[in-house]
Protein: ArsR family transcriptional regulator
Organism: Haloterrigena salina JCM 13891
Amino acid sequence: MSQSRTDGTEADSSAILSALGNKYSAEILCAAGTPKSAQALSEDIEIPIATCYRRIEELVNAGLLTCEGRQLSEEGRRTNIYRRTLDEIDVDFSKDRPQLSQKRRTEAKNRLQDQLRD
């Protein structure tokens, strides 16, 4: 995992903080440590599917969640599979603007976790 202080714009920080501030966003990120569909996330954290899709879109736009591909659902439909892009985020409010530090997930960690899950 790499840890980095965000060098992004104030808009990036605002998008991240806004996405994290919405109800269920943190729960979705916690549940998305392994690849999951919106339906699986909705069921895991017991939220309406429409709400889950809205939060997923916000988290993807903020760069906190990524679509890892598509797979067939039990009903035979192609569905997107999501996984979080980081394991930790710290917010420092001691400056004029919030400063974010993130521990990004590495592809090696994702592959190892996938192998342990199978």
Observations:
- The chain is about 45% helix and 30% strand.
